[in-house]
From TrEMBL:
<keyword id="KW-0328">Glycosyltransferase</keyword>
<keyword id="KW-0808">Transferase</keyword>
<dbReference type="GO" id="GO:0008713">
    <property type="term" value="F:ADP-heptose-lipopolysaccharide heptosyltransferase activity"/>
</dbReference>
<dbReference type="InterPro" id="IPR051199">
    <property type="entry name" value="LPS_LOS_Heptosyltrfase"/>
</dbReference>
<dbReference type="GO" id="GO:0009244">
    <property type="term" value="P:lipopolysaccharide core region biosynthetic process"/>
</dbReference>
<dbReference type="GO" id="GO:0005829">
    <property type="term" value="C:cytosol"/>
</dbReference>
<dbReference type="Pfam" id="PF01075">
    <property type="entry name" value="Glyco_transf_9"/>
</dbReference>
<dbReference type="InterPro" id="IPR002201">
    <property type="entry name" value="Glyco_trans_9"/>
</dbReference>
<protein>
    <submittedName>
        <fullName>Heptosyltransferase-2</fullName>
    </submittedName>
</protein>
Amino acid sequence: MIGDVLTSSILFEALRKKYPEAELHYLIYPHTKPVVENNPFIDRIITYNPEEDGKPQNFLNFLKLIRKENYEVVIDVYSKIATGIISKASRAPVRISYHKWYTAHFYTKTEKQLHKPQTDAGLAVENRMLLLKALGKDFPAELKPKIYLTEEEKTDAEKQLTNAGIDPENSLFMIGVLGSSKDKTYPPEFMAILLDEIAKITQADFLFNYIPKQKEEVEEIYNLCAPNTKKRIHLDVFGKSLREFLALTAHCNALIGNEGGAINMAKAMDIPSFSIFSPQIKKENWSIYEDGIRNVSVHLNDFSTALHGLSQKEITKNNGRYYELLEPNLIFASLDKFLKITSTKKVGTK
């Protein structure tokens, strides 16, 4: 997923600093490539399309290509059967991943993941950096993911906002109205209530993060909003590509909405974020660089004991019901505090 690829890119910065002459390759899905474009620490991006490359003969050919690279070290951040096969097939003398009993035999070195964060970077970052222990002890415990936009991309986004009649001096929020799936999407009626709250206490304009095929779902939320809120929403201004979305977000005061890849991307551009976690997601895993000021998140566990003692399977099965317990009025206090900090002035783009 996009958030995984972005977060894992921190390994390249750490490796480049220790091995300045090394050639560093990144194997990712094609649709995730935009978040690591222009990354100065990555020498080459190799894409794997599961629909095509996953076919038996194509997969064998792909493994042969990987083997021809003669890698000295392979770091597998997933430790799944498929990635384990690719790692083993590389014949790299050093193959590193997380310790799982069913994939451990693919690697020469495995690390057990941490379950409690040691820094404000969060487990998603710390566990990735943990994989570098196999190469030495002098790597940092954490690094912040970064996105590298060009000046041209930022200028084009600024023109798009100006052409839409959006006042560059006014506060502007990117709203993550939809999650990566229905199970990771705050109920539409609740999201509309949050937007009305933002419109009440700020004079901000709103952009929605969505793609054209999601227009109907987005319009449902729009139609649930109060008339005054609707006036501030610019539905026709959205990123037609992931890079366009990133450039538009770089001009926003903050990104507010469902936790996921978009939140991680905002953090990577030093744009403040306010995220709503799905009940089925463990907040400690993905609350990256949260300080309670510029980066804030909420989870049902912050307000209720309803999930205590339940298995992940039980929570996932009844995720919708538990979402209903995370009512907007529970979130208002944290959201209002966040807005007082982020809506007062524009945030400089990175």
